[in-house]
Amino acid sequence: xxxxxxxxxLSADFARLADEAEAVRGADWxxxxxxxxxxxxxxxxxxxxxxxxxxxxxxxxxCHLMIEAxxxxxxxxxxxxxxxxxxxxxxxxxxxxxxxxxxxxxxRASMALKPATPIEPYEDLLPExxxxxxxxxxxxxxxxxxxxxxxPKIRRTRELISKHGLELWLQVDGGVxxxxxxxxxxxxxxxxxxxxxxxxxxxPAEAVRALRTQAEG
Length: 217
Ligand code: DX5
Ligand code: ZN
Fold this sequence. Notes:
Elements (H helix, E strand, L loop, with lengths): L3 E4 L9 H6 L7 E6 L11 H10 L4 E6 L3 H10 L4 E5 L6 H10 L3 E6 L17 E5 L15 H13 L5 E5 L7 H7 L3 E4 L1 H4 L4 H13 L1
Parallel strand pairs: 1-8, 2-3, 3-4, 4-5, 5-6, 6-7, 7-8
Bound molecules: D-xylitol-5-phosphate and zinc ion.
């Protein structure tokens, strides 16, 4: 699969979200970080903002839920217009049931792992998912340094995906930039979230193109 670049609006200007979505036209997905101040020590946005943003842009929304009780909330993000919904396995009460519900409602189902959460216990769940997200920083804030120690986990996950012959996308999120994206791609990631590396650039759309070229290099 060609590399996909998903700019994270966490690094955008929240007062101008429609314009900020337009500024990254050509990106594959718009990554929307939902934080509840419980699962992570930060608070961002919720269902009404996702609903408005879905109406304001043609770019599909990749909602990353860093929240407690995703079993209760995730389906509402599908209804709000998200094309992909990611829940954290550390917070989910019933990840298989939740993934099936997200798919049944018509979105791609995705599961995220914090840095200290291993992939191996979840090998048998992979066929239930459309994407797996490996966090390459502790979730909660943009602009943190990429954790190199996650590269072996990316590699092992790619091996598991191949072993089972799955179509699953493998996303990385946190500290992805021109300096780190090639290492992620080499390890087997194919979907790249980038917040500060895109919205911190003078030309965000150009930054997306440059990251894609590098990832495909
Ligand atoms: C962090 C979020 C990320 C964040 C990435 O918890 O999940 O999506 O926006 O930002 P950068 O790319 O700046 O590390
Ligand atoms: Zn994210």
